[in-house]
Amino acid sequence: MPRAIPRLEYLFNPSTIAVIGASREPVKWGSIVLSNIIKGGYEGKVYPINPKAEKIQGLKSYPNIGKVPLEIDLSIIAIPAISARIPEVFEDCSEKNVKMAIILSSGFGETGEEGRRAEEELVSAARKASIRFVGPNSMGIFSALSNLHALMPTIRPQKGSISFVSQSGNLGVQMLSRGEQLGVGFSMFVSSGNEADLHCEDYIDYFRRDQNTKVILLYMEGLRDGKRFIEITRKTTKQKPIIALKAGETRAGAKAALSHTGALAGSSRIYNSVFKQFGVIKAENTEEMLDFALAFNQPLPKGRKVAILTRGGGWGVVTADACNKSGIEVPKPPEELLEELDKLLPSYWSRNNPIDTVAVRDPTVSIDILNIISKWKDIDGLIILGGFGEFYSDFLKRIGFDDFYIEMHREILERDVKKLIEIANNSGKPIFAVAFKLLDRSKMIRLLNENNIPVYYSPERAIKAFAKLIEREEYLKARAKGF
Amino acid sequence: MPRAIPRLEYLFNPSTIAVIGASREPVKWGSIVLSNIIKGGYEGKVYPINPKAEKIQGLKSYPNIGKVPLEIDLSIIAIPAISARIPEVFEDCSEKNVKMAIILSSGFGETGEEGRRAEEELVSAARKASIRFVGPNSMGIFSALSNLHALMPTIRPQKGSISFVSQSGNLGVQMLSRGEQLGVGFSMFVSSGNEADLHCEDYIDYFRRDQNTKVILLYMEGLRDGKRFIEITRKTTKQKPIIALKAGETRAGAKAALSHTGALAGSSRIYNSVFKQFGVIKAENTEEMLDFALAFNQPLPKGRKVAILTRGGGWGVVTADACNKSGIEVPKPPEELLEELDKLLPSYWSRNNPIDTVAVRDPTVSIDILNIISKWKDIDGLIILGGFGEFYSDFLKRIGFDDFYIEMHREILERDVKKLIEIANNSGKPIFAVAFKLLDRSKMIRLLNENNIPVYYSPERAIKAFAKLIEREEYLKARAKGF
Fold first, then answer.
1. Domain spanning B306-477: which superfamily?
2. Considering the domain B1-143 in this protein, what is its CATH number?
3. Contact yes or no for B316 and A166 at CB 8 A
4. Helix, coil or strand: residue B366
């Protein structure tokens, strides 16, 4: 019998939450998660459940969920698996009309035969109680819309348009943390744990329907229902890009995955062919996950031609190489464009693409060059190498320019960056920026982040990500033709 | 007629320097380079040369080099190329017994036919004056030994054991700057510019003979004397690793390189086969340059087997995948080792490699686990994923632990890190660390940096770099067999 579509709005946007296993000891997970929910600014009602406490973290505590005065949408279960009380807890939950649960407790399927049996009992108890659940062995969820940080770690992810399901809690959480460092924001995150009940495809299906999600990110080690994954994926990639890292691809990796979440990794050949056929964008490593997700903040290119704007010859060369390797063209600018640029650049400039501004230092030049390039109809995207970050301001400061001059330089730079954002918004073409000071968090870079211009710290990584926009555009075109 | 080996000690370790084109205007290159030399702490004598000034930056200035009271080892020439005075300057230099020059001026071979002729004149004038020179179109040099920052940009590279020749000034300098951010140190750097006289192979040959250089790094776009490059490379790779990024590999890249330094890029097939035959380690992108250089701070592995120590299942899986893809083995630990680990880890631990400590939080456990792993004779290296950086301290702070506890945790962590360093030093095997907070510059990470344990921010990149140690070991073995 097919089961109803899980109502994941009760998971990601609940009105009432019970934290079962909430504790006054700060080092217990139940206590940490409760504190994260409260400090994270969740606006619904949250009830700590603990048989021994009257008050936890300033909130009235209840000995069991039955005593809570309201119905509960979501139960977060943080009691040890070995207590074997979870099925019983589900019974209590059912009386309060709980729709969703997150089981943080570990020690189930990932630990061997006995754990697998306990996990099966969990599933039966949940079905009896009409509760759908995340986990077990989950590190929790995040939802930007409801300010919900139901997470074991204390991170506060940046809000944005990526929704992410990760079969590894640790890896997922560190990606959120990296996002925070890089200015990459998330709409929803779920550490799906062992996926005893809800599977990664259930979350994907919900992300597909969520208006705030522009890109879906997936870290996976294995699948419990390949057929359903394919069905949902196919439906989803018509609307939104899915970027997936499939780990456990190799023998050594698969062995590690088995002892990690109990997942059967499956052959990488099968996954590659499924991904390709159903338009899933494959990340080859953990860095590519965020690199690629970031790219989809930009519109898709209509073709394969880009202009590269650089301030240093060498960077132009490696970027052109990277384009060639990814099948991206770097065409020569038309003569009339070259003539316009001639007026601004020294006589010996390269007159080609990459457009090398030969480190011309007059700051008013960049904006004029950008204006000229924006008239180039025959390109499908623009890659800008350097010039936005703190590199040059640092230089000015160190050679002894006074604060007044540096401030003036910053104002001109800010004007240029705003102009770039305007050009990007009007052009309908993807524009990527590359900064050379690693993790530059200066005002200009933040301005680019906030306006959805992706910033990379390596041109080669920027180009690989750009190629994924092309891949998606071509997939959508093929699919529109009725494939 | 073969020319004498250039005496590059006068370039990288001069007793006296003249800066020709020194200026009182802070924005002129001559002024910036002079200021960098002075502020950088160069201990020899430096003489500004300027026909119009009496004093520049607190130093007595001379109208021409002839008026300087001492002999000059190195002249740095920062007058515009268009003044066409450089050949004349060489004549003056020759009277002062100048051995080396750096020509920062641009506008030569990289600008077209006329520039190429001017460059040829430069070469004749230098030969007549018995001066060897860097450039033109160079951004300068750095030498840790003599605290010499004869550079156009204001960076202060970290001191270390990498010596680096870059045919792109911009790219080279930004690598130095990244090194500073990542804790990667340099012994010497030269922006070789157009290589009208001294070629990249001349610097490589000098780096080969330099005791402080452990790794040679090369960014190249093309060669002027392929045969000599091969000769010197072959001699060098017997003693030290050379890591090279060959840019301009593709059609688009080669075109860009031509207009950048006038270099003929040559076919990538030829370079690949030369690199392979003569043991040059190829970096595929700019990130790999520093990733690989960093690795060679560690001893070479005797074989292909590694142990992976992780605190999170997912990271273990992607690392095992990366190993498999690079031909690195992840063998199962022997039973007696597993039994020892059983005593420390929860009953459901994976009993396999990656050794997943299942996020055991007792901080005294790590050191015991490390001690056990260090007894594992049959592995050739160790990869440690996480646990050293600020990630966990941040977590403790956020869940409300007081400063006293966090300080205690830091002390235990520091003891563990020191133990790791001791194990690394005694084992003779390569040990790599992976940190998950990007650009973590906390005390523990610095301690690892200072003790030559490479720190990466992505396990996949760490593994690629580890594979290069294996490549080098195998090259040396093959070569010892008389290949």
1. Succinyl-CoA synthetase domains (3.40.50.261)
2. 3.40.50.720
3. no
4. helix
One fold for both A155-297 and A306-477?
A: yes
What per-residue confidence (pLDDT) applies to B265?
A: 53
CB contact (8 A) between residue B348 and residue A221: no
Q: From the list A110, A170, A400, which residue is nearest B312 (CB)?
A: A170
User: Residue B136 in contact with residue B196, Cβ under 8 Å?
Assistant: yes
Locus of tokens 């490390």: B370
Which residues of chain A are modeled with pLDDT < 50?
Answer: 1-2
3-state secondary structure of A260: helix
Residue A159's pLDDT is 95
For residues A221 and A260, give the distance between their C-alpha atoms in angstroms, rounded to a whole number. 9
CB contact at 8 A, A218 and A204: yes
Respond yes or no on whether ipTM tops 0.90. Answer: yes
For A197-201, which contacts have Cβ atoms below 8 Å and span 24 or more sequence positions?
A197/A122, A197/A123, A197/A126, A197/A132, A197/A133, A197/A134, A198/A6, A198/A132, A198/A133, A198/A134, A199/A223, A199/A224, A199/A225, A199/A228, A199/A229, A200/A165, A200/A167, A200/A229, A201/A225, A201/A228, A201/A229, A201/A231, A201/A232, A201/A233
CB-nearest partner of A320 from B32, B174, B253: B253
Query: How far is the CA of A141 from the CAs of A80, A90, B461, in angstroms?
Result: 19, 19, 29
Domain ranges for chain A, please list them.
1-138, 155-297, 306-477
- Please name the helix (run of DSSP H) or strand (run of DSSP E) that holds residue B319, with its range, or none: helix B313-325
Judge whether residue B199 has pLDDT over 90: yes
Which among B32, B317, B401 is the top mutation candidate for probing chain A, defined by the most A β-carbons within 10 Å of its own β-carbon?
A: B317
Asked if residue B141 lies in contact with residue B150, where contact means CB atoms within 8 angstroms, the answer is: yes
The dihedral sign for the CA sequence A448, A450, A453, A458: positive
The helix, strand and coil proportions of chain A, stated in percent and rounded to the nearest 5, come to 45, 15, 40
CB pairs under 8 A between A and B: 240
DSSP for B419-462?
HHHHHHHHH-S-EEEE-SSTT---HHHHHHHHTT--EESSHHHH
Cα(A142)–Cα(A326) distance, integer angstroms: 35
Which chain A positions have a beta carbon within 8 Å of B317's beta carbon? 168, 221, 247-248, 253, 256-257, 260
Residue type (1 letter), B451: N
d(CA B204, CA B235): 10
Q: Do B316 and A401 touch (CB under 8 A)?
A: no
pLDDT of residue B410: 83
User: Torsion angle of alpha carbons A200, A206, A209, A214, nearest 10°?
Assistant: -60
CATH T-level topology, domain A1-138: Rossmann fold (3.40.50)
**How far is residue B397's CA from residue B395's CA, in Å, rounded to a whole number?**
5
Q: Is B375 exposed, middle or buried (0-12, 13-18, 19+ CB in 10 A)?
A: exposed
Of A110, A120, A123, which is closest to residue A263 (Cα–Cα)?
A110
The residue behind tokens 């190489």 is A321
Kindly tell me the sign of the dihedral angle through the C-alpha atoms of A152, A153, A156, A157.
negative
Chain A residues closer than 8 Å to B115 by CB? 348
Longest dimension (CA), chain A: 82
CB contact under 8 A, A171 and B323: no
Residue B315 has pLDDT above 90, yes or no: yes
Top-tier CATH class for A155-297: alpha beta
Q: Reduce the DSSP state of residue B251 to 3 states and report it.
A: helix
List the beta bridge partners of residue A56. A59
Residue at B118: amino acid letter:
A
